[in-house]
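ingest -> validate -> predict -> emit
validate: passed (alphabet ok, no gaps, 125 aa)
predict: started
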Amino acid sequence: MLYLQKGQQNELILNINNNSRETFATYTLVFTHVLSQETKSYVIDTSDQAEFGENERYCEIILNLNIPGQDLNYEGQYDLKIYGNGTSLVFTSLAMLEGTTEQGNTFTEYVSNDEDNDNYIYIQE
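emit:
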């Protein structure tokens, strides 16, 4: 499992270059939030050393989540699939997004008005 921090630059150390036998110009990282099923994609250019670096044992992907509009929306567990050139699946994993960039209470509490069946539902904003 990979651990990511919300609103920060994250370095992913992976072995996708060993799993694939081809050279890819781009890697597409597709994150799907397990609970909401929201999907967000990031394209990494392998020729850009600010985003991608590799050696014979592993590669390093820099995922910058502190750019406005680029952060993953929900904390929690994500399914991660990485595609070479957008079509060839080369890596799958689980990712856990932790932390928050918001100050204060990030949940809204809804209380049922049914006296016989009080339910508390917490929804992340």
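The beta strands are 2-5, 9-14, 26-33, 39-45, 52-54, 59-64, 76-84, 88-98, 107-111, 120-124.
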